[in-house]
Amino acid sequence: MFTATHLHAMIVHFPVALVLVAFVSELIGLIFKKQFYLQVSFYIIVLAGLGAVAAYLTGDAAGDGMDGGSLQRALEAHEESAAFTLWLTMAAAGVKIVLYYIKNEMRWLKILAFTLLFAAAGSVARTGYLGGQLVFKHAAGVELGIGNFDTLQNDEEDD
Fold first, then answer.
1. 10-residue stretch averages of pLDDT, the chain, 159 residues long
2. CB 26, CB 117: distance < 8 Å
3. Where is the DUF2231 domain (predicted)?
4. What is the C-alpha to C-alpha distance for residues 100 and 83, in angstroms, rounded to an integer?
5. Cα–Cα distance between 16 and 45 in angstroms, integer?
6. CB 112 within 8 A of CB 95
7. The Cα angle at residue 104 between residues 98 and 108, in degrees rounded to 5
8. What angle do CA 153, 156, 159 make, to 5 degrees?
């Protein structure tokens, strides 16, 4: 059965990777003074921002109904971290868009864009860690499928 949990798992990896690649591209562009990498970073962080919105919305839907105990606390920590990551990513994309359209080399805006991108990369790593804890420590979204085990066991007995 296809659920919000499945959709979130399929979508979330794209903005995670895109934020990290945008940061690395920005870093390479600044270190080697290559405009190409700064432009790549612009396009990638805009895509990451759009993907982050989709990941956040699907994650919010996937978390509905998961409450109580340590799972609830872990889910809340992941959700808070995801919201912070979303805002950092959107802010970084916004500053990069401003830089793109004003076509002005304002140093303070470049520093702000880099700082936001750096923070978003760190925040996405933390959010991913907390999401991994949800799945691997708390088994959030894991379907045991006991009925499938009985079918498998019967098939083995037939052999």
1. 86 97 97 95 97 96 82 93 98 95 87 97 98 90 63 52
2. yes
3. 7-142
4. 25
5. 11
6. yes
7. 75
8. 155
Rounded Cα distance, 125 and 102, in Å: 31
Residue 83, Cα to own-chain centre: how many angstroms?
10
> Count of CB atoms within 10 A of residue 40's CB?
18
- Sign of the alpha-carbon dihedral angle for 93, 87, 113, 109: positive
pTM: 0.85
The domain locations on the chain are 4-158
CA distance 110 to 116: 10
Retrieve residue 78's tokens: 């992941």
